[in-house]
């Protein structure tokens, strides 16, 4: 399976309230070693409708201590991080946020799936923390989660993000698309090609 070029990474998913940090941390060395050897990425469903503290802390504990570039990783959903931002004046939230922020900025973008969160978490589009992530300058990547189940496309997710005020300028839009390429699980050659294509597309569209 690891030799298949169509497999770019794996997704870690489970019943979040039952995931304890030491469970995640205990599995991480094996996962990390396997993915690093196979040069594949990891997407972790984390903070999806629950507090961020469990898996997120485990991730920070483990991956945060690895050298940068040793594994590509994305936080899937991360809606619970919106709660941390809302309560950032509370010392415990501020502490967790301080641990996460540098890692999110540099290494672990948040993959946002607006429609999935609306359907499964009853989080309305305009109530989603995506806009706060964008305003903070964090790298985010829009995703469809399960296009076959939710009947959405990447285009319709971008449309929802713009219509609901999460993306408010061309600069923000350009950054999200550029970050999507930069933080993708593609190899460097393909990333360079995509970045070139993006620049040409932006030029053609008049900036
Ligand atoms: Zn999902």
| Name of the CATH superfamily | Metal-dependent hydrolases
Strand content: 5-15%
Number of domains: 1
Distance N terminus to C terminus? 41 Å
Mean pLDDT: 87
Structural category is alpha/beta
What ions, cofactors and ligands are bound? zinc ion
Helix content: 40-55%
Name of the level-1 CATH class? Alpha Beta
Q: Which overall shape is indicated by the principal axes computed on the Cα atoms?
A: globular
Which residues sit in consecutive blocks of at least 5 with pLDDT less than 50? none
Q: In this structure, how is the largest beta sheet organized?
A: 5 strands, parallel
List the main descriptive attributes of the protein structure presented here.
single chain, 207 residues, alpha/beta, TIM Barrel, five-stranded parallel β-sheet, 10 helices
Explain what the structure shows.
- The chain is α/β, with parallel strands linked by helices and 207 residues long.
- The protein has one domain (9-204): TIM Barrel (Alpha-Beta Barrel).
- It has 10 helices and 5 strands, in the order βαβαβααβααβαααα.
- It has helices at 21-38, 53-62, 80-86, 91-106, 114-121, 130-135, 147-150, 154-163, 170-182, 188-204; strands at 9-12, 41-46, 73-77, 110-112, 140-142.
- Strands 1-2-3-4-5 form a 5-stranded parallel β-sheet.
- The longest helix is centred in the first third of the chain and has 18 residues, at 21-38.
- The chain is globular and about 50 Å long.
- The mean pLDDT is 87.
- The structure holds zinc ion.
- The site of zinc ion has 4 residues, from loops.
């Amino acid at each position: 399976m690891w030799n298949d070029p169509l497999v770019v990474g794996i997704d870690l998913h489970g019943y979040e309230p039952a995931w304890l940090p030491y469970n995640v941390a205990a599995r991480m060395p094996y996962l990390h070693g396997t993915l690093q050897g196979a040069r594949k990425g990891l997407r972790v469903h984390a903070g999806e409708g629950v507090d961020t503290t469990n898996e997120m802390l485990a991730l920070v504990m483990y991956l945060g201590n690895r050298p940068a570039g040793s594994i590509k990783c994305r936080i899937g959903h991360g809606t619970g991080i919106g709660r941390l931002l809302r309560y950032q004046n509370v010392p415990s939230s501020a502490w967790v946020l301080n641990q996460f922020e540098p890692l999110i900025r540099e290494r672990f973008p948040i993959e946002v799936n607006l429609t999935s969160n609306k359907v499964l978490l009853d989080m309305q589009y305009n109530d989603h923390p995506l806009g706060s992530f964008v305003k903070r300058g964090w790298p985010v990547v829009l995703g469809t989660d399960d296009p076959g189940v939710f009947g959405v496309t990447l285009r319709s997710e971008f449309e929802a993000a713009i219509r609901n005020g999460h993306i408010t300028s061309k600069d923000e839009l350009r950054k999200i698309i550029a970050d999507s390429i930069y933080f993708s699980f593609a190899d460097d050659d393909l990333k360079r090609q995509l970045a070139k294509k993006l620049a040409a597309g932006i030029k053609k569209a008049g900036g």
